[in-house]
Write a structure and sequence with these properties.
Blueprint (H helix, E strand, L loop, with lengths): L1 H29 L25 E5 L5 H19 L3 E5 L3 H9 L5 E3 L2 H11 L1 E9 L5 E2 L1 E6 L14 E4 L5 H15 L3 H4 L2 E4 L3 H9 L5 E5 H9 L8 E6 L3 E2 L2 E5 L4 H13 L12 E6 L6 H10 L3 H4 L2
Parallel strand pairs: 1-2, 1-3, 7-8, 7-9
Antiparallel strand pairs: 3-12, 4-12, 4-13, 5-11, 6-9, 6-10
Length: 317
């Protein structure tokens, strides 16, 4: 009799329990991450793609390791895909030159470049800068750094004479162009002439780790990666000390190919410039939104290239 009463009670309560569980699930769904994209937008058709294309390819230079870069830009990739209505896929290469070459060969339509790699892509692939990330400090600029081990006796740029130094990549603005400019301006020599040995770490993270592990006596980086690695505990101010920093530089732009059809370009631009109204935007550094930019904003980078007399093969080895 007792068993029968318990079973009866359970059957009476079951519909209520199911209803409560469904309500709870609906509540959780409504509180999804602000970067989430509705499931219905995950697989857009190709009808809204640029003329003659079935997808948009987005290129990312390896400022940090490729997996981390892809993760940072994923919310923006998904959002662009949703707003434009065309599948968006990511292309990555082992160096900056690989992404430039891919855009040159029409294998990349939209890309995130550093200022110098954008200038190269502008010259070789018809890249147009249209947006730049604004950091949580309210600025779209950043700075190049020289970093040394915390216990290093080095106190100035002149002290780097004859030392082993790591740059990031020949096409990196903060990790090669600006450090080269600072050395030339201060000493009258090129880095190859002034340093005892110049190496390339490949990414900004690797440049910082080379200093921490003391495999080099100094390295070039930027304040974005330096602050990120401090925040993650990968380095400390005691392990990696800033020796000097540059004046503010124009931020890394988002670009598209100039021969992409005008409707697609406008849709992509509108999506990126208004994304902060719908999602928590992401990118290189702590980005709060994207602002419009253009080719004129990067004239200081062109001026540095001209003053140093750099050729294409020196910047994109």
């Amino acid at each position: 009799m007792l068993r029968r009463n318990v079973l009866t009670t359970a059957l009476v309560l079951l519909p209520s329990l199911v209803a409560c569980n469904q309500a709870s699930n609906q509540g959780n769904t409504s509180q999804q991450s602000p970067s989430a994209v509705p499931a219905s937008a995950q697989r857009p058709s190709t009808s809204a793609c640029p003329s003659g294309k079935s997808e948009i390819i987005m290129g990312l230079i390896p400022a940090e390791n490729n997996q981390e870069m892809a993760q940072k830009f994923e919310p923006m990739r998904a959002y662009i895909e949703q707003k434009v209505g065309c599948p968006v896929k990511v292309f990555q290469a082992t160096d900056y030159a690989g992404v430039i070459e891919a855009m040159k060969k029409d294998r990349v339509d939209l890309a995130w470049f550093g200022p110098l790699s954008y200038i190269l892509a502008e010259q070789e692939a018809g890249a147009e800068a249209f947006a730049v990330g604004v950091r949580d400090n309210g600025q779209s600029t950043y700075r190049s750094l020289f970093v040394v081990p915390g216990d290093s006796p080095l106190k100035s740029l002149e002290d780097l004479k004859g030392k082993t130094v790591a740059f990031v990549d020949p096409a990196s603005t903060s990790g090669a162009l600006v450090p080269s400019y600072l050395v030339k301006k201060k000493t009258g020599q090129t880095p190859q002439e002034f340093f005892g040995k110049l190496t390339y770490a490949g990414t900004h993270d690797a440049s910082e780790l080379a200093v921490k592990n003391k495999t080099v006596e100094a390295a070039a980086d930027n304040d974005i990666t330096y602050e990120k690695m401090l925040g993650k505990g990968l380095i400390t101010k005691e392990s990696n000390r800033i020796l000097l920093q540059s004046d503010p530089l124009p931020g890394s732009p988002l670009v598209y190919r100039n021969d992409l059809d005008s409707t697609a370009k406008q849709k992509i631009k509108d999506a990126i410039l208004t994304a902060h109204k719908d999602i928590k935007v992401t990118g290189y550094g702590n980005i709060i939104r994207y602002d419009a930019t253009d080719a004129a904003a990067y004239q200081p980078i062109r001026d540095m290239v001209k003053e140093l007399g750099l050729k294409r093969e020196q910047m994109a080895k």
